[in-house]
Amino acid sequence: MINKTAFIFPAFITEFTRNEIEFLDKNSTDFNDYLHKASVALNIDLPEFSYNTDVYKTDELNSQLLAYLLSCAFSDILQKKGIIPDLIAGYSMGIYASLYAAKSITIEDGAKLIFSAYNLVNNLTGTRIYGMGAIIGLSTKDVGNLIQDSAPDLEIININNEHSLVIAGKKDDVLLVLAKAKEEGAFSAAELTVDTPYHSKYLLKYSDRFENLVNSFSIKEAVIPVVSTYNQRIFTQVSDVKKELIFNLTRKINWYKTMQKLIENNVNEIYECGAGKDLKKISRFIEGDYKMKSIYKI
Amino acid sequence: MAQITDKTKDEVKEVVFDFFAEECEMEIDEISEDSNIISDLDGDSLMFLELIEIFKKKYNLNIELKTIGKYAVKNPVQTIGELIDMQLLIIEHENNILEIE
User: Fold this and answer.
1) Can you tell me the ipTM of this complex?
2) Residues of chain A found within 8 Å of residue B68, distances taken between Cβ atoms
């Protein structure tokens, strides 16, 4: 069997492992350089990173930018060490770091794309009436029935694994279905700390405008193939990168199938390039002959 | 209803300790029955779910996750010792676990 390696990129930072800063220091990486590049590109002032910097906890855009920049830094460290992935995948908003790692976009353009996407949907986000939630322990069918019975406008927008999925829509609907999921026997049903219903039908109306934005960037062919979280196709071409950026924001994704695609393609070592260990956690119920490798042990 | 023997208790304890040692990248002797699953071991719902699946296969249990979930929500566990006790109850009562309340 051919041994292959993949890098996967998380969307947000749920919880730091608290090894992140030590890992950057140990690998002589000045994270301020990454913050500076994004700050200049966006004409904003991203403060120095610590585990307790409030602005990275309370502001959705800043927390997205931090997650992106840490993922980029970690990917750079791994690649400098000679760990070059055969395939790449980005979970939800992790797409931007995944395209940076695949050498399709620059670090500055990734930050600009995040900034543009965020501002584009801000009239939706700013209303604070939308949200997302994660349910663990119920089947897709069970959650589908709950949605149909109590909040039919809500959507399952991502399946993480056999026992974990994500819902998005109006916040009241999200909270209602989360409460019903707990009554139904979910092991966990929690609201996510975002005000944007990513991947839901509410974002579809932004497709054309986001396409125009994406077309204004200088996007290159991916040097390392990327797996689409939208349809699990493996792509490198510029036109596919652009499509993936648009679909990733405005359509449902399926992380479970994306991971299965990596495994089907003989990937047996997977590095989670990002802060926290959310992707390692959800890999638990994704079967296959692979290992989630800790970046902190390299 | 299964009979819980001393052997079963030892097996369950061993599986739980081995599982957390591997998942949390710790030595077994760093974990005790008083270890808090969340604050000491950074545990989560998916770990709990995976343990249930392990015991479901090991003891060929007739359980529905939803039923165990309902019990777990009403009877949350915090420590490894409490988790072992709950796993023993699941093995003993399977899908009838809600009736023991």
Assistant:
1) 0.86
2) 185
User: Which of B25, B47, B49 is facing A137, going by the closest CB pair?
Assistant: B49
Closest by Cα among A225, A265, A250 to A90: A225
Contacts of B46 in chain A (CB under 8 A): 136, 163-164, 187, 281-282, 284-285
pLDDT tens digits along A200-216: 999 999 999 999 999 99
Where do the domains of chain A lie, and which CATH numbers do they carry?
4-123+201-297 (3.40.366.10), 129-192 (3.30.70.250)
Domains and CATH numbers, chain B: 6-100 (1.10.1200.10)
Nearest CA in chain A to B52: A137
Kindly report, residue by residue over A133-184, the tens digit of the pLDDT. Answer: 999 999 999 999 999 999 999 999 999 999 999 999 999 999 999 999 999 9
Q: Tell me which residues of chain A, numbers 185 to 204, contact chain B at a CB-CB cutoff of 8 Å.
A: 185-188
Position A1 pLDDT exceeds 70 = no
